[in-house]
UniProtKB/TrEMBL annotation:
UniProt-listed PROSITE patterns: BRIX (PS50833)
GO cellular component terms given for this protein: Mpp10 complex; nucleoplasm; small-subunit processome
Record-linked PANTHER family: U3 SMALL NUCLEOLAR RIBONUCLEOPROTEIN PROTEIN IMP4 (PTHR22734)
GN (gene name): Imp4
Swiss-Prot/TrEMBL keywords: Ribosome biogenesis, rRNA processing
Compartment(s) of residence: Nucleus, Nucleolus
GO molecular function: rRNA primary transcript binding; snoRNA binding
Protein name: IMP4 protein
Superkingdom, taxonomy of origin: Eukaryota
Oligomer status and interactors: Part of the small subunit (SSU) processome, composed of more than 70 proteins and the RNA chaperone small nucleolar RNA (snoRNA) U3. Component of a heterotrimeric complex containing IMP3, IMP4 and MPHOSPH10. Interacts with MPHOSPH10.
Pfam family, one: Brix
Single GO biological process annotation from the record: ribosomal small subunit biogenesis
Amino acid sequence: ENQLLPTELRREALALQKELEFDFDTPGGATTSQDDEYRWAGVEPPKVMVTTSRDPSARLRLFAKELCLLLPGARRMNRGRAELGALVGACRAAGVTDLLVLHETRGRPDGLTISHLPHGPTAHFTLSGAVLRQEVGGLGGAPLAAPHLLLLRLDSTLGKRVGTILKHLFPVPRPDSRRVVTFANEDDVILVRNHVYRRRGRTVELEEVGPRFQLRPYLIRLGTLEQGDAADVEWRWHPYTATAPKRRLLSVT
């Protein structure tokens, strides 16, 4: 009736109003991500930034460039002497949704950190078996269309969480896209493959276009990259427990 609330109800009304700010439905209905960091993913294409550790080798710079070809719309940024705080702040100001940082040891790419902005989570992976596009051989131009995604054997609670982090690096593909990116779990190691396919009559031909590498998660934090140890740990790999060789973390079986 456009009248002022009674004095005794005003404080309670303000508290209810604050609660209602977070009480609305998402476009896809109920979500399963912890803290709903990805509740609006898919409304707009992701904006991904790829960078490296300081003073990268030529191979790491080339791998970062090819990773941008794997992720449609991703852009590469030279790290220079920028601190992590300044780096994350610049990405937030530019509307970047995910920051990827590549690491190396003696010129060999061996680490990948994915930080979802503006609030997290941040996932840390060991990276191995990196094969560049030129090393795959017999390749034409790099396909730039948004790919269809295959997430194989990522069906445990942790596997779904990791799959959510990985799949939201990609925009929604068109139905006629001829490109497929596969994340296949094999003994808790995620094999990443990039293919294009062609129809030959009743058969389908696959051609790998690279790059090719393997990921293994070892830490997921709820905050962003610059928060470091101050962010809460959602999951951490414990390799030295007695049951570690027997467990399957990313899949149910």
